[in-house]
Design a protein that fits this description.
This protein is an alpha/beta fold. The chain has a single domain, classed as UDP-N-acetylmuramoyl-L-alanine:D-glutamate ligase, CATH 3.40.1190.20. Helices cover 35% and strands 26% of the residues. It is built from ten helices and 14 strands. The strands form two sheets. A nine-stranded mixed β-sheet has the order 6-5-1-9-10-11-12-13-14, sandwiched between helices. It is globular and about 70 Å long. The structure holds adenosine monophosphate.
Length: 309
């Protein structure tokens, strides 16, 4: 069975969309990644930190999805990472209202012994120093290391982030972040520059406009499924990343061809995530509905055309 280690925030989120508002609910990058990857038959572990204010029932929800939480530290007298965001009417852009690092500010991750031999490492969004510390605790390089990050870390910890970027095989970021990181407006040029920073594979997420996979000269594009109802895009990027690495870890194949399928799996899970507030939709997907939607993806993207030359 593939062993997947996931690092990222386990958080309280407060979200506002044109359709409603939530108080503090379960969120965080590692939460979404773990939920999405839980639909593959894997041995998955999370590395994160929460405060004493974090409900035990939330942790239990994650354990029930077969995530090993021995790498999740609970700081009894600390407060959990809190993020709050508000989406604009088109749901494609959002403003971060609050980022309270709380216990994340001085988190020292410890990789449990039984995960130091993981084959797949997902460095989800959180402080690059924590991501680096996890890389350094794994003696034998995993088969694949995937990094996700965001503008917050580019703005505040760029030097440390660049050191992590140099060490990974795949980076997944959204289009605006790719532009910020590379200083290039064209995503093709942005990907070329990011390749030079280290990653052989660059995945650029474009929200409802799909995702691009670059591998030096090769490019693949997957659309997002056109949905009747999008409720809350929070976590879509992380859910995408979880589906992407989950599929790769379960197939043990990191070729470009298989990464194309992984991109489709990631997009498929993200399409479910946005249908309800927070992570709610990701708890009880059936294999049947996952497969049904994959079929829709196939129908959406396949065509025959006769070439005259
Ligand atoms: P996404 O919508 O995929 O970008 O991810 C949203 C999730 O990322 C939320 O559940 C937040 O808790 C988490 N998040 C927001 N800001 C940060 C940050 N600076 N570092 C780590 N995680 C974050």
């Amino acid at each position: 069975m593939g062993k997947l280690l996931i690092v990222g925030t386990v958080a309280f989120d407060a979200i506002e969309t044109p359709f409603g508002k939530t108080d503090k609910i379960l969120g965080g990058a590692a939460t979404y990644i773990g939920l999405s990857a839980s639909y593959f038959n894997l041995d998955s572990g999370l590395i994160s930190v929460v405060g004493g204010d974090f409900p035990e029932e939330y942790l239990q929800l994650l354990r029930d999805k077969k995530m090993d939480l021995s790498g999740v530290e609970v700081v009894k007298d600390g407060k959990t990472f809190f993020w709050s965001g508000r989406y604009n009417y088109n749901l494609n852009t959002r403003d971060t209202l609050i980022t309270d690092l709380n216990v994340l500010a001085d988190f020292k991750p410890v990789v449990p012994d039984h995960f130091t031999d993981c084959g797949f490492l997902m460095l989800g969004n959180l402080h690059p120093a924590v991501q680096m510390s996890v890389i350094n605790q794994i003696p034998k390089r995993p088969k694949l290391v995937v990094l996700d990050t965001m503008n917050f870390w580019m703005d505040n910890t760029l030097d440390e982030l660049m050191e992590v970027i140099e060490k990974v095989d795949v980076i997944t970021i959204n289009d605006e972040e790719a532009r910020q990181l590379s200083g290039e407006y064209s995503l093709v040029r942005a990907a070329q520059k990011i390749h030079k920073m280290g990653p052989k594979f660059v995945v650029i997420k474009k929200g409802e406009h799909g995702a691009l996979l670059f591998n030096n000269g090769d490019v693949f594009f997957a659309p997002a499924l056109p949905l009747e109802e999008v409720f809350d895009p929070t976590g879509a990027g992380d859910t995408f990343a979880g589906g992407f690495i989950g599929y790769l870890a379960s197939t043990h194949d990191i070729s470009f061809e298989n990464m194309k399928r992984a991109i489709i799996y990631g997009s498929n899970f993200a399409s479910f995530c946005v249908e309800k507030f927070g992570a709610e939709r990701m708890f009880d997907l059936s294999q049947e509905e996952i497969q049904r939607r994959l079929k829709q993806f196939k129908q959406l993207t396949q065509f025959e055309i006769e070439l005259t030359h």
